[in-house]
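README, section 4: Worked example with a bound small molecule

Sections 1 through 3 covered apo chains. Here we extend the same pipeline to holo records, where the ligand is supplied as SMILES alongside the sequence. The molecule in this example is NAP. Nothing else about the input changes; the structure line simply encodes the ligand pose together with the chain.
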Amino acid sequence: MKKIMLFGGSGQLGHDIRNVFTGKEAFSIESLSSSDFNFNSSDNVEASLADKWPFDILINAMANSDIDRCDQDKDLAYRINHRAVEEMGDFCSKHNIPIYHFSTNDIFDGKNQSPYTETDQVNPISIYGASKLAGEQGLVEICEKHFIFRVSTYYGALAGAKNFILDTVGKAKNSAQTYAVSDQQICATHSLDIAKALLYFIENEVIEYGIYNCAAEGACSWFDLTSETFAIMGIDKTVEKKSYIEVPDNLERPVYSVLDMKKISKFYQMPTWQESLENYLRLLGLTKQIRN
Ligand SMILES: NC(=O)c1ccc[n+]([C@@H]2O[C@H](COP(=O)([O-])OP(=O)(O)OC[C@H]3O[C@@H](n4cnc5c(N)ncnc54)[C@H](OP(=O)(O)O)[C@@H]3O)[C@@H](O)[C@H]2O)c1
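The generated complex, written as structure tokens:
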């Protein structure tokens, strides 16, 4: 049996990573949150990781993914998204074990007009994106056995977590009309689909280390995502199109966040964004009867 050490197990993605490994006889998983192991206060990460040794695989779903908080506290952003990742990579390298880490489309500036490949020019426009990029680059440098999965916008089933889909549905119930941004393009993905791709790589002992885009296939706008959610759920509401320029929250996000899935598809086929969404709503029991 292989032992997995999972950092960020209490987060949105961590929740689904724990789910996909539950009941797998070939693996045991120890999941850590900031209350078990806090990278802010740990000044000797190597010694703290050594306390957990031995383990066979390290998965890092830990991050400071709050874009506003990263802008306000650059040191914290780099501590968590850059240096902690390097420290984990250093430990894995010394112990010759693989590390599976998650990054983001926010390492790009969003000026592309076609899906970003793994080798496209990076140019983050936020502290969050810059700190995540530094983490990626450090890890590539330090640990040969690295997998970096770049993910884009996702939604999950973890109660209490920020969730565009459930927020939109909640708002729609309380108002006659709702709006959504139609001129920003994203790859909207259920986090369980990202966790399943990770599971595939680990179970099949893929050894082609490197950076992989990992998101649902296809591009959609927030308007497309909202309209498709309502269609699947059978909600009869008018959705008004807005430009991101009219919505302050969206101003600092890249306008184009679509990732190209050709590289990962040689190993694992990601679902389309519509399939990912329908399976998510089905899991939550939110699809209308006719499509069940
Ligand atoms: N959410 C998205 O749409 C999105 C998009 C692109 C990329 N990503 C990337 O996906 C990965 C997972 O993101 P997520 O949205 O699932 O994150 P999340 O829900 O915010 O969870 C973050 C996790 O990191 C842990 N953590 C934070 N600060 C820590 C510290 N100082 N010491 C130890 N643990 C700490 C948290 O523990 P506590 O629960 O104890 O605080 C939690 O388990 C990240 O690499 C993120 O950059 C996310």
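What to look for in the output: DSSP finds ten helices and twelve strands in the chain. Residues 8-14, 33-35, 37-40, 61-65, 80, 102, 104, 132, 151-154, 161 surround NAP (CB under 6 Å).

Section 5 describes how to batch many such records.
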